[in-house]
Amino acid sequence: MRAEPNLFGLCRMGAGSHKVQGMLRLTFLTCCVLLLTGCGSDDSEPVGIHDVAYESPVDYDITLAGNFGEPRPFHFHGGIDVKTGNVEGKDIFAIADGYVSRLTVNKYGFGNAIYVSHPDGKTSVYCHLKRFADQYEDQLQRTGSKDTLSVVFPADKFPVKAGDHIAISGNTGHSTGPHLHLELHDTDTWVLRDPLMKLASIIADTVAPQAHSLMAYPMDGEGVFNGGFTKQTVGFGAPETKVQHSEFTLQRELTAWGRVGFALWADDYSEATYNHYGIRYTRLLVDGREVFRSDVDSIPISCQLEVNQWGDYDHWRRTRVWYMKSFREPGMRLPILHTNFEQGIVCFSEERPYHLTYVLRDYQGNESRYHFTVRGERYQGITPHPRRTLLNDYLLFRQVTWPLHTPVSR
Question: Which helix (H) or strand (E) holds 35?
Answer without folding.
Answer: helix 18-39
